[in-house]
Structures are given as C-alpha cells and as structure tokens.
Amino acid sequence: MINYIRLNLLPYREFAREAKKKQFRNILLVSMFVVIASTIMLYYLLNSRIETQQDRNAYLQSNIQKMSGYLKNISQMEGEKSKLLSQKKSLESLQVERFLVAKMMNDLDHITPKGIQLTKIEPVQGGEQYIIYGRALSDNRVAMFLKEISATDLFESNPVMNEIKTQNGAQEFKITVTLTDRVVVPGQRDLGK
User: Fold this and answer.
1) Which of 10, 83, 96, 171 has its CA at a distance of 20 to 30 angstroms from the CA of residue 153?
2) Which domain holds residue 94?
3) pLDDT tens across 44-70, in order?
4) Nearest Cα to 166, choosing from 126, 133, 138?
C-alpha cells in the first residue's frame, strides 16, 4: 500500500496560488483596459457632443444677429411709415382746410343779404372758430345775417355777436362763428382704416 502520509502537496498548492495570482493579474489588466478604453470612448463622445452643441450655438448666434438686423430694419421702416402717415394726415388736413375755406366763402356769399358788406374773415386759434368783420346798412340786416348763419350746415346754430357800432352812417359788426362737426368733405377718407 502506498503511504499517503509521505505525499507532499505543497508544490501543488504553490502552483495553484501562482495560477490564481496570474488569473487575478489578467482580470485586473483586462478590467483596467476596459475602464481606460471606456473612459477614452466616453471622453470622445462627450467632446463630440460638446462640439455639436457649440456648432448649434454658433448657428443660433448668427441667426440671432441676422434677426436683430432685420428688426432694426423693421423699426426703421416703422419710423418711416409713421412719418409718412403723419405727412399724409397733415396733407389731408390741409386739403380739408382748403375745402372748408372755399365752402365757407361760397356759403357766406349765398347767405349774405343785400346791404351787408363783409370786410374780413379771421381764424381764431384752433381753426374751428372764425371772426367775421363787416358793415351793414341797418341792424335788421345784421339780424337777418345772424339768422342765415344759424340756418347753414357749415356753422353751429349759435353765432356770437361780439361787437356792433355805428360809424359813418353804417353798422360795423364783429361776429364769432364755430364750424360744425357735420361738415362732409368730398373725397375725405377715414385715416384709421
């Protein structure tokens, strides 16, 4: 029978320990390689994402600058538009005033009774009131003139007699009249539309 007691297992255990150390080193090296490789790949992936985002940001910045240039142009155009609209309004108001003066002269010519001579028509500040100066042969003719002014659609129905005095046998008078809001001007359009 073999004497098992004399069998020495120490070298076998030493070989097994060395094999486990070698296997541990190999696993450690492989895991270090995997960690380093994954770290490098993650670094390059994040860098590419950062570069992509920076490209997007640069694209957005350039488009924002373009849009701000467009907005400046639009604001300049809005300023020019408002300036042109104000010029248009002033031209239309001049047109209305021109028409009103012609209509006022025509109406005054038609309503002035015989025996009255109009000497001067003067606008008061604001342009809605006018002072009419004139001479009449009698007070009755001035009263008729006031009544005719009240009946027109150009002036309001309450003309004000400011002054009347007799000079050189004639009645000199001064009447303040106010234009009505009902005056329709041919070709006038609403500016808000």
Assistant:
1) 171
2) 35-100
3) 999 999 999 999 999 999 999 999 999
4) 138
